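I can't quite decide. Please look over this sequence plus structure tokens:

:::
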Amino acid sequence: MQDFSLYEDSLPMEKTLPLRFHFSGDKGGNRSLHWHEHMELLFFLSGETEVICNGQSFIGKQNDLIIIDCNQLHSTKGGHFFCMIIDPSFFEDLSFESILFRTHIKNDNVAKACFEDIDREYTSRQAGYEIEIKSIVYHLFAYLLRNHKIDSLSEYEILLQKTKTNKVRQILEYISQNYKTDLTTKSLAETFFLSEPYFCQLFKSQTKLSPLNYINKYRCEKAALLLGNTQHSITEIAASVGFDSPNYFTRVFKKLYGKAPNSYRKESHAG
């Protein structure tokens, strides 16, 4: 079964090259909201990709670059892109703690040249390719620091932004562990010692969804897995993922997937 956990634990990287590469075509361009401890750079090759990052929506087009910082909540939908995941150890001699890059860099020829060079070296894997790739990545980040660093935010504002992201990440992890229980905005706000209005505002600012819509979406994703992989009844599945009413579950599921749970199950088995 596919795992919808928010935390993405990347496979161990080589000590000689703490980077990982893949094309969206290799794994699919659609990823639900998730986070990881690595920095991620997406360079877009064709089509359009919707990227949600820190509650902001971006449309990546050909030759655009989107930078996703460590621990930032993000999702991708559609398009074809080259993905580079960088382990924090890669920059162990540098610190980006108080640095923010522009998230969306449009049609940048320097970034394009760097990713083409990285792709060529990684594909050919000639002697010394690890050293060559490291040098290209350092060149790329030196360029980004000089041309695409955000200077308008103070260190305090950057820290505040990262603190908000971390708080919402904790909330989402809590939801992922307790989605089968009775979750309300009031109970969640109390759990995290926040007022209910501020909780709702903070949550939507980072996810683009209200808490209730996010919880329903998460529950329906779990239900979709059960529909495709078990013979449990719709009523049993609805209850197992936290819906009190099978009818309400059916309405929510149909709104999200464009078809009723029974129809989704039939198509899953037919495929």
